[in-house]
Amino acid sequence: MSVRTEGKKQSRFIKDLPIHLFILPSIILLLIFNYMPMAGIILAFQDYKPRLGLFHSPWVGLEHFRYLFTYPDSKQVIWNTFLIASLKIVANTVIPIGFALLLNEIRLLVFKRSVQTLVYLPHFLSWVILGGILTDLLSNKGLANQALGWLGIPSIYFLGDGDWFRFTLIVSDVWKEFGFSTIVYLAALTGVNQSLYEAAEIDGAGRWKQTLNITLPALIPVIVVIMTLSLGNILNAGFDQIFNLYNPLVYREGDIIDTFVYRVGLMNGSFSFATAVGLFKSVVSFILIVVSYTIAYRWGNYRIF
Amino acid sequence: MKRRLTVVKSLYTALAISVLLAGCASNGSAGKENGSTANSGAGGDSGANEAVTITTARIVGGDVTFKNGEDIDNNVHYKWAKDELGIILKNDWTVGTGDAFTTKLRLMVNTNEKLPDVFRTGDLNLATQLIDSGKLMDITEAFEQYASPRLKALFEQYPQLWYPVTVDGRRYGLPITNAVSSSNVLWIRQDWLDKLHLDAPETMEELEQVMDAFTNQDPDGNNKNDTIGMSVSLRNGVATWMASSDFIFGKAAMPTSWNKGPDGKLQYGSVQPSVKEGVSKLAKWMKKGYLDKDAGTLDESKAVESFIQGRSGMVFGPTWMASGWPFTADMNFDYKAIPLPSGIDGQQGFMAEQLTSMQFYFNKDFKHMDRFFVYLDKIMGPGFYDTESEFANGWAEGYDYVMENGEPVYDHDKIPGGFTDAKKYTLFYNDIQTPKMELEVMAKLGEGNAPETSYDKQFASRDKRWQEGAAVLKTYMDKASVLNEMTGPPTPAMSKKSELLKKMENETFLKIIYGSSPIESFDTFVEQWKKAGGDEITKEVNEWYASVIE
């Protein structure tokens, strides 16, 4: 019996072989561009000299990692990255959910659609352009401070004062990205069974009660999945954004691992050290992704495999 | 079943075709390579007129344009070289960007691919790797033997040009000179000076008085306290390429620059005591509102905007600021260039443009250095402002100029088919300038002299303020230039530690200027700087300096 099914399976595999071959190019590309470069990780354990190449550079073991953790700035940099990224993750979850809920209450479809598109637009702007715009907008004589001036509040140096800098980073990031997440949540909202609302209405529940007892619980699996998956990004605080906005005044509060690696690795040509930092980041991210996948698996009913 | 067969068949056909195509491509390139090596290998000491091939590799960016169906392998300049000099210029390979170029060369260090005969780069890290790999030619003798007299004279005048390419007393590359003709002047609002009955400032005290008046006496007359004394950019430190504040530090010590100290050794400018005074001066100005409150977040071009918009009274920078960018024709007020006021030590001083930032390197198997130097001298004609040069009028008639009644005309509209920048086809991808020569010509025009030579005429169409700026700059350029003397590749300690030190420096300076740290933190910075690697770097820099200076 079992032998027969095995034989059947095999013959089917052979029969489908030409079709299977179609994915071969993608697999080859994946191997070449995603897996082969991983061999470059050995750079992190070498004192890499381009002239000696990957195979002849001297081995230094964990020297670069030791250097990373004794480097006077690294604690500060790791902490900044962690703090900025976590605040961004939280803000980028809470605000889009709130916004999606509000938008969901709107019955006028034209208005709903146009708002949805408008808040989505900043997502397409590059940080290089936004960096220039924000520098103007948030300068001491910029629009933001003029508005504060009318309210009688003294001007704030958003990009030059450390604590305000972090605040600015998070607010501007949310402003740029919340439209995108809003769409995800809106999509989840359309999936809620309408008969639940009808039943609730018959039971006498108002819109607030309906939101609290039907909509939010329906969203929880999506929220859990998105939140936990973004944990993998806990060490990505947004290079593009910070690189275009930071300056020496806010190094202490705004310098993150990526900007630090950029300055050390690319500007100074310390490839090995930069690789070591990158590897450290990847390992932390990998652990967090495994943990968060387990969480999503348990509570979000989320399955990849 | 039949259908599946057709799918498989067509797959095979596609595969076969692509294999065939790939075969063709590799055959073609292999043939080409063989040809070029055979050519350049033939005959060591070739006769003056015998045709020789010089191979190169180059960046062909978006700035290189063509006309008449030409391309980078076959164009008016390559044709000229072949017809006039018997030199066949051949491109081994071309790439689109400088990064790709460096990457490709870096890979070539590790492989056994043949380096081009001649190529240029400004990346000293890469050059050091190439020198270490033993693939580059030591040109010490070739230069003595074949370089033209005027080129030799140039290198005798500026012996420090050799330092970046010198290893153990031997020279492994040919540095290409920069124009060094535009840094730096102080741009000031003449109408504001007139309105407030002030003279152009010459000393630090006068400068402060003028800034105070510009800030507080409403020079733009709109009854609002909205003007500042000077536009500066502090985002990338106190010494930068435009809207800089480096002239404040005078000549005693220049931040970020390595200069000779009293003991004859190189010392790092940013940690010298006079810099502390300069930084505290900036702090004072920031407090009094002379500077833009946003200076710390503004990069160079953003910082200049306040001057362009008429909110600021001064900005320090190169004369070419009047070339159309960043200054524009819309600036409807009277501004001009004046000599920089003396700095904190009572002397005029500014961070000078480097003498060289690009070098030619040669494959060690390259046989025709004699012919290369002939070619180089020809294309350097305009750089020497040689009126006899065949490029005196321009690089190619019908490309960047046309002749009208025996006179060259540079009006782009008059060139049939439009302007095409033929100097981009040279082995240097540009014209080669020599230090201070452009300044001489521009200053002559700025002093009001009528244009005589073809070079004068080419520059005569430039903005009047640019020319006048050159005339101003010429009066003090030599005595006020502070040249960074560390021109070699980064030392080992520098590669490892300079990031930390630079961050520390910029943070300390900016926090003092913004008043969030006391001036005393400068002393702490100096101590930390020395301990965290500064002393080690200083030692290595001086070892390097001793090795090149002999």
TrEMBL record, chain A:
- Give the top-rank taxon of the lineage listed in the UniProt record for this protein: Bacteria
Membrane topology listed for this record: Multi-pass membrane protein
Keywords, sorted A to Z: Cell membrane, Membrane, Transmembrane, Transmembrane helix, Transport
Transmembrane residue ranges: 21-45, 77-103, 115-134, 178-197, 218-239, 271-296
What GO cellular component is one of the record's annotations?
Answer: plasma membrane
- Pfam entry (one): BPD_transp_1
* BP GO annotations: transmembrane transport
Localization terms from the record: Cell membrane
User: For the ABC transmembrane type-1 domain, which residue ranges apply?
Assistant: 78-292
Is Ion transport included in the keywords of this UniProt record? no
Q: Which Gene3D superfamilies match?
A: MetI-like
Q: Which family does it belong to?
A: Belongs to the binding-protein-dependent transport system permease family.
Name used for this protein in its record: Sugar ABC transporter permease
From TrEMBL, chain B:
Annotated Gene3D superfamilies: Periplasmic binding protein-like II
InterPro entries attached to this UniProt entry? Bact_solute-bd_prot1 (IPR050490)
Report keywords, A-Z. Signal
Does this entry carry the keyword Lipoprotein? Answer: no
Q: Where is the signal peptide?
A: 1-30
What is the protein named? Answer: Extracellular solute-binding protein
Q: What is the lineage of its organism?
A: Bacteria, Bacillati, Bacillota, Bacilli, Bacillales
